[in-house]
Each structure stands twice: as structure tokens, then as C-alpha cells.
Amino acid sequence: MFTALIFYMFAGIAVGSGVMVISSKNPVHSVLWLILAFFNAAGLFLLLGAEFLAMVLVVVYVGAVAVLFLFVVMMLDINLVEFREGFLQYLPTGALIGVVLMVELLAMLGGWAFAPDIDALIKAPTPTLDQASNTVALGKLIYTNYVYLFQASGLVLLVAMIGTILLTHRKRTGVRKQVIADQVNRSSKSVELRKVQTGRGI
Amino acid sequence: MIKTLDLVPVLPEIFMAVAGLALLMLGVFRKEDNTRPISVLVILVLGAAMMLVSSLGAEKHLAFNGLFVADRFAGFAKGLVLLASAFSVAMSLQYLEKERIGRFEYPVLVLFATLGMMMMVSANDFMSLYLGLELQSLSLYILAAYQRDSLKSTESGIKYFVLGALASGLLLYGVSLLYGFAGTTSFEGLHNVFAGGDGHHVKPGLGIIAGLVFVVAGLSFKLSAVPFHMWAPDVYEGAPTPVTSFFAVAPKIAAICLFVRVMTGPFGDLVEQWRQVVVFISIASMFVGAFAAVVQTNIKRLMAYSSIGHVGFILVGVAAGGELGIQGVLIYLAIYLFMNLGTFAVILSMRQKGRLVEGISDLAGLSKTNPVMAFIMAALMFSMAGVPPLAGFWGKFYVFMAAIEAHLYTLSILGILSSVVSAFYYLRIIKIMYFDDAAEPLDRPVGRSMALVMAVSTLVILAFTLVPAPLVTGAKAAAAVLFPAAG
What we know:
The structure holds 2 protein chains of 2 kinds. By secondary structure, chain A is an all-alpha fold. Chain A has helices at residues 2-23, 27-48, 51-75, 80-84, 87-110, 118-121, 134-142, 147-168, 180-185. Chain B is mainly alpha-helical. In chain B, the strands form 2 sheets. In chain B, strands 1-2 form a two-stranded antiparallel ribbon. The longest helix of chain B is centred in the middle third of the chain and has 32 residues, at 151-182. Chain B is globular, with a radius of gyration of 22 Å. The mean pLDDT of chain B is 89. Chain A binds chain B through residues 107-109, 111-119, 121-123, 144-149, 151-153, 155-156, 158-160, 162-163, 165-167, and chain B through 1-2, 10, 17, 21, 24, 63-65, 67-68, 103, 105, 108-109, 112, 115, 119, 127-128, 131-132, 134-135, 138-139, 141-142, 145-146, 148, 157, 180-184, 186, 189, 193, 198, 200, 202, 205-207, 210. Chain B: Keywords: Cell membrane, Membrane, NAD, Quinone, Translocase, Transmembrane, Transmembrane helix, Transport, Ubiquinone. Chain B: This is NADH-quinone oxidoreductase subunit N.
């Protein structure tokens, strides 16, 4: 009963703030609503017993992604009026597509069946909490059975990094960079000490 | 746990990954322009990887808890992919230096893309499939936008990226439906579920079919098969030409081999469910490829439609299925590789007074200004059109034979009809080269690496008729491992 109440609270707020993300007039407010949606989604994960995912969602999405969004939104000079033009115009088509998708999904899930021996097929079933916490269980899998996937993801991220540098990094002229070695190696001869009499100047 | 034995089948991939990292470091720490040395090193790395692949032997090895498989089929596909990548790096170098856009990241990205393709063809689980696919695609998105000062190139990069992300989404959605049904993403596990290993045959429900269709749609995008082909002409035209030559060959081979493995492995027993979809995609690709290419004036766009058409022909073999069909697919792929490499070597040599040209009409009168290149191009075009003594004919021959064996008569007839239409635009190029008056001759000489690629590919397409045995038997052995029950 209590869990159900908590669930409806998280779910309701998540959906409500999701609607606010797309309908609020100020993009900064949109991002703030988005953060609220993330927090509630994290709450839903907690209810499912996936505490690691919940924490990662908060750390990664709220801590990094949403803050990045906020920076970008604040730095871009978006013309709000122009930006919102045509929003209502697309609404009926968008809503129609949404409804069609919804009906199709329901039709598909209505005839859902599981494979007869599904329990035997699950490769890495989630252990119960008294055996191992989520984080431990995931860690044990990532570095053993799934090390191949782990390393491959690392390569994917590396390629993303190379791409960012390749596509955006430009050699600029006239940039004054600090060269610490030069500063340290400055000889004392380049500095001259002078006595300045008071009230005279050099 | 990781066992040492696990590392042996993955050796080529590990070697390439480590070499890629090392070359990246080398490029960053050496201050001078090092596109050339790194390109040469990348070619050597690809060659060494090929030797490692061939040294693995014919046995089937599973590694990393069944996520990775190295068998003869993967070996054959990897050989083709590595060959295509090595040739494309060799062809790119000259272009990059002439256009002064050489940066050492280019060959390194090609290396990582190739690594992604190797992982794709060795995938034995939807998770490793997806990661290989993403490693490949991400490198390709960057390569498409590589010439970042050109509006066309950046546009093609963004287009490719957005549509590619959508396709990945479709694929993942399909995979999640399958996982929801079976509780496993491994190919063997799914195969057993659909085969009904414990006696009771499972009737595939609506959810499975939806998942299957989503997976096919996502993979078809990567193949640029109709109706998921919209990106291909724009990306091919916008991307720098050496990148286009890379796109047209290696990723196609990898994606088709992956498609074959998925369709014959986990979905092997759902043939009735996917065959109609593949037949439709195949017919649509052949016809769109044939008719849309007729009106093109830009040769890179023409090649995009031509490759869409070829994918259609290759899918005829997939739809036919069975050992014969897959053997046809592999033979077609090998021939396609050489035909496309040769044609792109010609396209990359199309310069007038040092300026690059891409119009089909710029080839006018080539038979008088450069008879050797005109002859090579003519041979390649005849081969692409499927004129008998050349290799291209045999590629089509094997897939259509398999289709007829599988009683897919409508598909075969439609395929041969579209082949006739596509012959029109290939022959038009020959007509322009031999019978039109030259407006302005193309520059000579074409450069050593281009000449080498042209010579090798022409030799292969001419010699295949005389000595077909190595390729045909290799493809037969590779196809056989996908059907353990039959063999």
C-alpha cells in the first residue's frame, strides 16, 4: 500500500515534470523540470531495487548532463518567440502519431508471451539483496563475463573523443600560452632592481 | 573469468586496438605532419591483422563467455574487410595530401572503424553486435564530416549521424523485445528458443515478429537497402571522395555478413517470418538502385545508387538462404569489393588541371586522352552490369542460381529485369568515354597507389572466370559453418 503510494507519487511527478519540460516558456525552466523528472525516475529505480542505476542516474544525468544543458541553454542566444513558433501547428500531427504508436504497442504487448524456459535462459540473474548488493553484482559481471563489452565500450568512447577533437579543435595563432619552463628558466639578469625615491617616480 | 584461451581467437582485434592506441599516441606526440607515416603503419597493421586472422585456422572458437565467435565465416568476412580498408587507406593518402587536408586521425579512425567491423562479423550476441556496430558507425560519422571546412561534408556527417542514431534506436528496440521474450541476447540462446530445443516448437508471437522486423530495419539502414537508403546518396556525395570509397566497400561487407549471421543464426528457424521482408527489401533495392541511378549526373551519387542496387542483388542470396545462397552472397561480396575499389580508384583520379571533378560528363573522350584508364573503367562497368566473361556476371549467377533452387522465381525474374535496367547506366558511362568528344582531358599520371589498385582490381575481375576455384571453395567452406546440421 505504502509502496504503491510512493510509486504513484514518483510516477505522477515524473510525467508531470516531463510535460512541463516541453511546455514551459523559458528553456532554463525546462532544464530545471528535466532535473526533477530525473530525480523521480531515480526514485522509481529505487523502488525496483536497482539502487545502483538510481544513483548513476542522479550522478550522471543530474550532475553532468543537466548542468551541461543548463550551460548551453544559458550561453546560446535563443530567440524564444521564434523558437516556439509552429509548436501548436505540429501538435495535432505529433499527438496523432503518438496515439497510433500507443495503440500499436498495446496490441503487441497484448499478445505477449514469454519463452517457456525463460528462467533457465537468463544468463546473469539479479541476485537478491542478501546475497550481494546491485553494485557488487554488476561489478562482478562487468569485469569478468562482460569484460569484452566493457573494453569495447571504452573504445567507442575513445572514438567519440577523437571525433570531438578532430571536428572542433583548431590551431589558433596569437594565443599566449603559459610556458612554465620558460618562466622558471628566466635568468635574474632580465629583472632589474631599482631604488625609487619617494614622490619622484622613475 | 577470463581464460587465456579466450584471448587467442580475439588476437587480431586486440592487436588492432592496441596498435590503434599506439598510433594515436605517436600522432599526437610527433609534432610534424605525420599523415603519411601513420597511413603506412595502419596499412601494415591491417596486413598483420590479416595474417593473424588466417593463422587462427578453420576451427570454431567461442570466446568471452560466448560473446565472440571466430569461425571460417568470420575469417572470410574479416579478410575481405581488412583488404578493403587497407586499399582505401592507400587510395586516400594521395588525395589527402593533394587537397592538404591530411591529418593523422584519418587513418587511425579507419583502423578503429575496421576494428568495429571485425567485431560485428564476429558477434555472437546482440550486445557485442551492437557495440561493434556503434564503434564502426561512430568512426564513419566522423569520417563523413572529416572535411570540416566544406559545407557538404559537414552536412553529410550530420545527416548520417542523425539517421544512424535513429537506426540504432530501431535495432535496440527490436533487440529489447527479443530479450523480453527469451531472457537472453546470445545467438545460441535465441536459436534454441526459436528452434524449440526441448521438443515443443514455439509459435512466434506478435512480439517476436515485431522485434525481428525492428532488427531487420535497423540492419537494413546500415546496408542502405531500400526503404532505408535515403541517407546514402547524400552522404556519398557530400563526404570526401576517399571516405566515400571506404563507405562503399568495407562497411557494406561487414554489415551484410552480420545480417547473414543474424538471419541464419538466431532467426534460422524463423525463415518463413523474415523471408518475405528480405524479398521485399531486395526487390525494392534493386529497382530503386536501377531507376534512380539513370538520371544521376554526379558519379559519386551514381555509385551510391549502384551500391544500393548491388545490395539488392546480394539480398537475393540472403533470401534464398541455405548454404548455396550464403555462398553466393560471399562470392558476390568479394567481387563487389574489387569492382568498387577499382571504380573508386578511377573516380579519385578524375582531376582536370589539378582540380577534382565529379561529373559523369567529365569522363568524355577518356578513350583518347587516357586509353588505359578508359579500358579499366570499361571493364569495371561491364563487370558491374554483369556482362558474362567478367567477374560481376558470376556474382549475379551464383545468387540467382540459389534463388532458383529455393523456388523464388518471381524474385529472380524481377532481379534479372532490374539488372537489365541497371546495365543502361553502366553502359552509358562507357559510351561517354568512348564515343563522346573530350571537353578537357583528365590529368596524367594518376599516381602509383591508384594505378596499383586499378591494376589489381581489373586483374581480379578478368581472372575470376579463368581461376574461380580459390574464391568459390573459400566461400563454400565459409558458408558451410553457418549450417552445422546440413554439413
